[in-house]
Amino acid sequence: MYKLVFFVPDAQLESVKEAVFATGAGKIGDYDRCCFETRGMGQFRPLVSARPFIGRAGQLERIKEVRVELVCEDALIREAVAALRKAHPYEEPAFDVWPLSDF
């Protein structure tokens, strides 16, 4: 199992989650579409070569985002990350993938 964590603007939250859940990620036992969400503030500054969804090159941006955490089976993690990248509005979405221990 893996834990997938990603950050997404609130306006695109449901569509990105839906894309990731469609791969089978977020299943715990007899439950699916399981996740935990935390709201916060993200910041970034697009460099000159960037094509930002929000903001302009060279300008620091701060935006309300949602941190989404969910589990994903080994066999599905690559597909889940690919779906995340495809559905996410950012050119470079921020995400983490951690292997989980089996206790």
TrEMBL record:
Protein name: YqfO family protein
Species: Zobellella aerophila
